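Why does residue order matter? Because the sequence determines the fold. Keep that principle in mind as you read this record.
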Amino acid sequence: MPKIIKKRPDKKKAAQEPEVKTAALHALKAVKKRQRQVIIIVSVIAAVAVLIAAFMFYSSSQSKKAYALETEAYNIYYGADKTMPEQERWKKALELYQKAVHIKATPTALFYLGNCHYNLADYENAVKQYSLFVDKFGNASGISPIVYQKLASAYFKTGKNDKALETLGKLAKVNSGIFKDTALLMEARHYESAGDAAKAQEKYKALVTEFPNSPWGAEANAKLAAKSAQGAQTEKEDKGAAEPKPPVDEPAKK
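Structure:
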């Protein structure tokens, strides 16, 4: 009778099965871990996108609010309400421009805020607003030349003549010097009001020489002509006083 040979179990196969299961579990865990990471990253990106959208909406909303305040202030400043007295108009416009600047400081808002202070004879605060304009926008704005003029005038009003002249020096350099004639005129007016006629005449002469077609030329020429006429009259009087007078005849004796 043939001997029955019993088959031994495949130990190698039995040993491989747990290894395969373990590798599969590791792979599954890795996939799940990556899924969690992807979910976290996507969530973070979504949150950032929501924040950006909210910020842009908020900024846009605030800009619209600032613009609305600035427009209302502008209309009041230029007398849309004819029944409102001038001083009241400037006070109301100032209040609205302050609110607009608090939200968003635009070049025009700062300029008109300074003008409101200037018109109300609050020259110190006018200087602050014009200076803030210069610091924030420099020569980048189209109204920079007017701001320099107003700033110089405000400095003159507060007695800070050196600061005013320094500001006019900056005005003279704006856009390659196209506003230098205005700076020269303001300097001449200052020296004239200060009693320095020689310095004023020097500035008037520079104006008509360097800018013969300047809109300020008529005023400068008139000042030069008046000074010349005054000088001629003074010279004539001095000459007349220097000439010897004929002796006065004595009355005849009776």
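The two ends are 205 Å apart (CA to CA).
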